[in-house]
Amino acid sequence: MIVPKIPENETERIQSLRALNILNTPVEERFDRITRMARRLFNVPIALISLVDGDRQWFKSSMGLDVRETPRDISFCGHAILEDDIMVVPDAHADKRFFDNPLVTDEPNIDFYAGCPIHALDGQVLGTLCLIDIKPRAMSAEDLEILRDLALIVEAEIAAVELTTLDELTSISNRRGFLMLAEHGLNMCARRDLPASLVMIDIDQFKAVNETYGHREGDRALRSFSEQLKNKLRASDLFARIGNDEFVVLLTNTEPGQAESVMTSFTEILREFNARVNRGYELAFSYGIVDFNAKKHPTVEKILADADIVMYDQKKKKRYSERLAAKI
After folding, report:
1. Distances from the Cα of 159 to the Cαs of 15, 88, 126, 166, 171, in angstroms?
2. Cβ of 191: how many Cβ atoms within 10 Å?
3. Tens digit of pLDDT for each residue in 49-89?
C-alpha cells in the first residue's frame, strides 16, 4: 500500500475546507440527492461526497456505506485530490497503491474506484465525488463526463455555503466566515497551549475617501488594502473584513510582541504602496492588539471586543496627535 502524499498547498487547502464550516455537519438532502443519482446512473453500490481533512476523509454524503469517515492514510480520495482530473482505479487488486489496502482486503472490499476532485471557490481541492464497486470495471468517456457534471453540481452546492462566509467586495472572509475560522484556530491554540494574537484594524479617514473621490474609489481602496494585507500575512494567518472599513487578523502560534512587528512592517508596505500608486490619498490605519488568553477570552466575540477597545483608544490618541501637530 502507498500512503497518499500531502499536497504542497496543504495549509491553504485545509484552511479553505474548514472555513466552510461543513465538516461534522448533519446529513443534507441536497447532497444526498447527488450521491443517490450517481449510484443509480453508474449502477454502483457506493457513492460518496468525501472531504479530505488533515488526518481523515469525512463523508458529507454516504450512499451505500454506513461509516461517516475513514483515516486519510488509507483513503483513495487522498490520492485523488492530487490529480487534475478524475482518478480511475479499474482494479484495486492489480494496483500497487491499493492491492493490500485494508479498504480493499476487508470491508467495504473496494475493487473499483473513480473520484472526481471538487473545489472551493478559491480553487482549492476539498475532496471528491467518488464511485466505488466491489468488482473491477471500466469508465467510458461518456461516464467520465457525467461524473464531472455531477461533481460540478456538488461544487455549486458547496459554493452556496461558501458565499455566505465571503466578503463580496474583497473576496476575503466576512465576519461570519472569520468567526467560524477563528473558533477553530483559538480552540487549537487553547488545546495545545499555543500563543495567539488578534489585531483589530480600522482604516483611517476612509469616509473622506468616499466623500472626496466617490464610492467606487472607496471600493477600490478597500480591495487594495485587503490585497496588501494578504500579501504580508502568512498562509496560516486568518484575516477578514468585518465591517465597512474594519478588518481583523488572527495570528496563531505567534509569540507576544510579534503581532506588533507584523503591523509595523505592514505600515511600511502601505507607505510604499501609496508612493507607488499615488492616487491622491493615502491608505493608513489604526489597530489594536490583544494577546489570546483562554480564560479571559472564552469566545471569539470576547477577544474581538477587547481588541476593538484597544484599537479605538489608539485611534483617539492618533487624532489628538494630528490635531496637536496641526496647531504647531
Report:
1. 15, 26, 12, 10, 13
2. 9
3. 999 999 999 999 999 999 999 999 999 999 999 998 999 99
Give me the count of residues in the chain: 328
Q: Is the pTM of this model over 0.85?
A: no
Bridge partners, 131 (sequence order) = 47, 114
Q: Does residue 236 contact residue 253 with C-beta atoms inside 8 Å?
A: yes
SS3 149: helix
Q: How far is CA 284 from CA 243, 295, 326, in A?
A: 16, 33, 18
Compute how many other C-beta atoms are within 10 angstroms of the C-beta atom of residue 252. 21
On whether residue 2 sits in a domain, the answer given is no
Cis geometry, peptide bond prior to residue 108 (ω within 30 degrees of 0): yes
Q: Where are the alpha helices (DSSP H) in 49-140?
A: 77-80, 102-105
Q: Are residues 37 and 155 in the same domain?
A: yes
Q: Where are the alpha helices (DSSP H) in the chain?
A: 10-19, 29-42, 77-80, 102-105, 141-162, 175-192, 206-213, 215-232, 258-277, 300-327
Q: How crowded is residue 262: how many other Cβ atoms within 10 Å of its Cβ?
A: 20
Q: Count the neighbouring beta carbons within 10 Å of the beta carbon of residue 59.
A: 22
- Indicate which CATH number applies to the domain containing 215: 3.30.70.270
Number of domains making up the chain:
2
